[in-house]
Write a structure and sequence with these properties.
The chain is mainly α. The protein has one domain. Helices cover 79% and strands 0% of the residues. The protein is built from 3 helices and no strands. The radius of gyration is 19 Å and the shape is elongated. The two termini are 33 Å apart.
Length: 98
């Protein structure tokens, strides 16, 4: 529902620049993006650890797969955050160049 509102607001020119967050990005969109980053980090790490725990219980290889799941979760979180925040960095760089 909120994304539909943001899309409509963007079409009708109701989206404003918020500080250094981004060009044409509303406050809510920027806030939701940052909240989503936090959930993505937590979710990636928790899912990696839970998958490692489950595999360890099935294969009886404790604690190796938990550690592997943690490392994979951290790598996925790092890469995902990089991909999510890259547009914000580009928008800020474009704003400074103008």
């Amino acid at each position: 529902m909120l994304m539909v509102y943001l899309t409509c607001a963007n079409r009708f020119g109701m989206v404003h620049t918020v500080g250094n967050i981004g060009i044409g990005m509303s406050r809510w969109e920027a806030a939701l993006r940052l909240v989503g980053v936090g959930f993505f980090i937590g979710g990636s790490i928790v899912l990696g650890v839970l998958a490692g725990l489950w595999l360890d219980s099935k294969l009886n290889t404790e604690p190796y797969l938990v550690i592997a799941g943690l490392v994979i979760g951290l790598a996925v979180a790092f890469f995902g955050v990089y991909r999510m925040l890259l547009p914000l960095a580009r928008n800020r760089q474009n704003k400074e160049n103008d």
